[in-house]
Protein 1
Amino acid sequence: MSAREAILARLREATADVTTPVGARGEVPTISAAPASAAGTLDLFVDNVADYRATVVRCAPDRVGAEVAAALARGRAHAVLVPDGLEATWVEPSQAAGMWLRRDAGEDGSPLSPGALDEIDAVVTAARVGIATTGTIVLDHTEDQGRRALTLVPDQHVCVIRADQVVHDVPEAVALLDPARPLTWISGPSATSDIELDRVEGVHGPRVLDVVVVG
Amino acid sequence: MPSFQRAAKGALADTQQRRNLAHATATIRAKRAAVVGEVADWEALRVAGADAKDEALHHLPDYLEQLEANLTARGATVHWARDAAEANQVVIDVARAQGADEVVKVKSMATQEIELNEALEEAGIAAWETDLAELIVQLGQDRPSHILVPAIHRNRAEIREIFRREMGRAGRAAPEDLTDEPARLAEAARLHLREKFLRAKVAVSGANFAVADTGTLVVVESEGNGRMCLTLPQTLVSIVGVEKVLPTFADLGTMMQLLPRSSTGERMNPYTSTWTGVTPGDGPQEVHVVLLDNGRSRVLADEVGREALRCIRCSACLNVCPVYERAGGHAYGSVYPGPIGAVLNPLLRGVSSDVDKSLPYASSLCGACFEACPVRIDIPSLLVHLRTQVVDEASGRSAEAAGMRAASWVFGDHRRLEAAQRAASLGGRLLGGRTIRSVPGLGAWTQARDVPTPPTETFRQWWARSHRNDGHTGEDA
Ligand code: SF4
């Protein structure tokens, strides 16, 4: 008998007493905090993201490029990675300010190697969903965010999220996400509390997280 | 493996460890209480979490087949492992096929349980732990003592020494001027591990959840080492206990509220990664999933004990347990310490060894673990259930005899008695004015009757405090 057959047989025997059919619990219950108002949800999102020691700014749509450039300047970034699908106006002021915008492509056109990514200072991306109750941003790594490694190896991540992408609680976000995509849920910069429970920001992921909320 | 009581005796004498533990568990308890308090209907969430896991467990063969089909459809290779040896062999074969002599690892209880690192080493493959605490444990040739903060028994000065002594042997050495500031120690780990992440061909992970209806695996973490392992190497092997299955993707809406708040006491952990098989052009292009039994079918067959398989390894029960706080994690003789370890280990392995026989008695049955558990595992009832099994196994011995052995152990040494009394009075503080069911270490002996809630200060503590100046200081002041 293969390991597969053996394990399944053992598990069937172990659950022989169960009389309910599969799925008898019915609809998956949604236990979710209710928003007081759309404005309240956005304020909560901004507060909770900031609580994780990310830098959060809110701006009008025509100010995104300026805020991105300001964040990159604060992080002293020079080489800045730009995913192919990113809104071009979001990084024009940065280019004008002399930053070196890079695509995810080496000289031969293939995606940057991990070593090449390690030479890059910062990355600018869009986002898929924001969650107010937890201060979380979810990336689904479509064209305006790029593959997962892009937001992982560089030391600064500047993430632009539209107000209408922010939902109130976790279950609403889960309902909007596509499970077939790889997803990265980000709540503040990388952190550890492993040494005497002192929280230290910035271990392996980006040490600096800037969030620009539009609208 | 010595019995819990014998191992705990040594731990009780380790004042440093007890101070670290008391500080750590108190800190996490306070954080957890604050973020759980923010959630309006926490109890409804707990019920939903328990129901989701029960649905999966009660129909585990069906959900596993569904998981397998979805993973395979998305380009993953699914392996099944009856035991540790079979699971380890899969990892060894995958690494060899890639010509890899090293793998990077995300913190995973399942891989500790199967002693994967040791098996890889025997096969000539180095396994690098990348979680900061696991790195400390690995470099210090030590064992984890807490589910969430495995190096909780080490202080910053010890960590600095371990890094200075050992990092150079495993790769990039620690900086010459390394201090014991946590930020400097974390920086040293970042530099040490980055070269390993950038060159690694094969990564090994566990999974917090495996979603049957989509084939999605989920890893919850803080540092970004998980993302590194799950993203940069071209080959990924994930060892997933069969009990990790969730029926639907929507269940993550419940679990991702319960887990972070219960474990680190945060609204959300810094990073969660999900992936569904292979995504062309993004991350590992060769994805393996090992579905591991290793005793879980045995637990599932125990109609009472099976609810222990709901456990999502949040460690909330450790942080509220007066016995864990005194004894530390090593005394449980397993990678699963604390209240959940006291039930899970004997359920997984049976009650024939000394340690597994003693574990059901490593509790005061005070009930704090049940109240803290996000998936409502009734650990005290499971302990009582297991005590019955221990007694049945030791034919001719009554429950009272087992209880009296525990009692003689406690009364045999004044320090143990003090520890038990202090633990009980801690229980008194935690539980307010409620009655608790027994004194730690005397579980079986007193389980049949209620004892009054102990005073918050025992006579011995009062004596030690009020007579401090005459040279009779309390050990734990
Ligand atoms: S038994 Fe419950 S509280 Fe303990 S680790 Fe498991 S899920 Fe968490």
Protein 2
Amino acid sequence: MKSNRLIKNGALVLLWIVVALFLLFPFYYAVVSSFREGSAIFEASLWPGDPTLANYRAVMTDQPFAKNILNSLIVAFSVVVLSLGLATFASYAFGRAKFKGRRLLLYTILGVSMFPQVAVLSGLFEIVRLFGLYNNLLSLVFSYMIFTLPFTVWVLTSFMRDLPVEIEEAAIMDGASSWTIVTKVFLPLLAPALVTTGLLAFIAAWNEFLFALSFTLTNEQRTVPVAIALITGASQYELPWGNIMAASVIVTVPMIVLVLIFQRKLVAGLTAGAVKG
Amino acid sequence: MSRRSAIDAARARSAWLFVTPMLVVLAVVAAWPLARTIWFSMTNATLVDLTTYDFIWFDNFVVHAEGRWYGIFTDPQWLRALWNTLVFAAVSVSLELVLGVIVALIVNASLPGRGLMRAAMLVPWAIPTVVSAKIWQWMLNDQFGVVNAMLEGAGFTDGPIAWLGGSSLAMVSIIMVDVWKTTPFVALLVLAALQTLPKEIYEAAKVDGIHPVKVFFKVTLPLIKPALVVAVIFRLLDAMRMFDLVYVMTGSSEETMTLSVFARQALVSFQDVGYGSAASTGLFLIIAMITVIYIMTLKPLGQEKAA
């Protein structure tokens, strides 16, 4: 009986190791490749061999990659702040108030979150041109609201609904306005939810590719995904894989660290956004 | 006036005030651009000059002229992109669902190190899509890729395989990368559902000596069905609009071009806003249909417990 369980657990552990290897190997290989230089990178071995930082140096000096990172940070932060600001108030109305048209609006917002981005591309092009925002980071901040806003509203609404009603009742009896209730009573209570939602929106904005590719032109204005996708070598036939892997590692490590720190909350936020229909 | 109705009245008064700014932004970034895209789909506008164009009704979609058919619905490249998108969505979502459930069941087994496993699952999800596309492109490189090196080293193949070259293997590769990247997401949703299941049922089943496989199909699967439906819908919509993975890994190659890649190519690369908008509108209609079906299956929102 006992040895039976031992075998079963042994098999499970083996399965875990196989799954974990499959999940983690590509990133491991990117790290290994990023430390190899010259012809060593083409050897396809599983160890770095003679590790060097040359690729990291090249990616920071040969192209405006630091500027690209800064661009991504500016865009992602602005998008998060704007979305959370608008969504907090909207989610108070959706989560706590009963008003006509509430259900229809929520479904519309859910619908918007499922839009294919390419379906608004020509319309957005027109607006971006009209306001002279082509090749300007503002065009990205503006267009990213289409996917961050529905998502933040949806998730915050589900968190807002679960807050205790007694606190709000007391505040209303004390004569507090709705504005005061949202900013002074609910905002502090929502802080953990805001961190989770903000982080998910940040990741979405950090990763966005289609709008960033279409609305920016020069390398100086590019965000990191576009910069990485468009890194080119000295000639058309040479792709600098070492540089690409170094750039990939630079932008991925902070994401992985953030996700691992907040893992429990992120999973809760993802399921709140997905399951609570 | 009762306490409760006083609260309700106060909330309702401010509700619209609080919702309006968000709605205005959504109208400007979503509703208006979508309306313009649909409008442009019935014109011959070009990206060079978006202000002068002729209105041509549905000629971008389908038209018979001078003995030939024109328009996206008769364009072999668009039909190929439609086929690619459907194959990609159907195969990758099915694989992700099956593997996601298996991984969730494995991780759900109470063993030490479960937390580590869950952390490992988040890694592919945390890597930006463009970055994972680049990493896999490098790993699948026909001459220097580690995948070919490992396959050869293990004696499975004796020559390099052109994974991303122009063949049906390219689609297989892209599906594989998508499965790698998003199976963890499905697994996490399923895991969350598994952890809400009552333990008593399983203990009872164990006492009664019911085979675990039977327990899974008769008890677990029906109970986690709502989570599975959500996972499938989210993944399906994502797969139907897939752009970045395909664009980065194989560019505009015919074998893998999806509807989004086709639409952007017409719109930006060929500057044909009319035709590109028609392609975008086509994709939008397909996705809108799936969305409407999904929303109709949801429990009516007004019926959840009052706050």
